[in-house]
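Journal club side-thread
Mid-discussion, someone asked how the predicted structure for our own chain would compare to the paper's figures. Pasting it here so we can look after the session.
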Amino acid sequence: MKTEIPPGETPSPLSFRTENYEAGSVFKERRQPWCKVGYAVKGVVEAKVEGRRFLCPPHYATWIPADALHACHTRENVKFVSIYIDRALCTNMPERPCTLALSPLIKAILADFADRGITVPETDADRRLAFVLVDQLLKAPRRESFLPISDDELLRPVINALQANASDRKSLAEWARSLGTTEKTLSRRFQGQLGISFNEWRQRLKLVASLSLIEDGKSVQSIANELGYSSASAFIAMFRRQTGTSPTHLATMTTSQSVSNPEG
């Protein structure tokens, strides 16, 4: 069963929404005359912006320019943050949708607003805090997409299978044989369509999957096993390459946040 999520509040010049959404929630396709940033505190939200697909996992946000046609949906229960920003404040932001890496300060400000139920900053102090957030978004590292997805007929079977089973360890050569093509052709298709290699794409997929498992309180060893790693150290090495920190550190932060905010 799908649940349609209504639009957020008109920014004046900023507004915020942090909500828990059940699996099957849908943000109906729309254009809005303001800019939007969305990311999942827990879980992963799938977005489509001007025909391009994005994933919004923890720690990474999707930037949606004003008037861009966009829609989102959830395959699992998520806690999702939406930031609505007047286009006049976004002159130095990208003209195209992209992925933003979120700093601890951005997440702390958003968590503070959520804890206090602030949707539209009204006091001088909250307005100042909101503009600090905008400055941080302007400085945030930008990527075309954290985990690009394609409907390419050659890539789709690989992408769908790995999304359904991130522990699948088949090599690119094995995938190529099963699809009746060559490893070189499939490798070029990944690079050409997604902008990254097959191995890099699979590592990012595993990272996205691991973030949700960490949020669920799974141990590092159990996550490594679930994602098909030969050892916990191999999983930790991948996690550090992708995030700059260890899964244990992130798990500790997640536990601390859950204790301080039991409704999160």
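Post-session note: The first strand starts at residue 3 and ends at 5.
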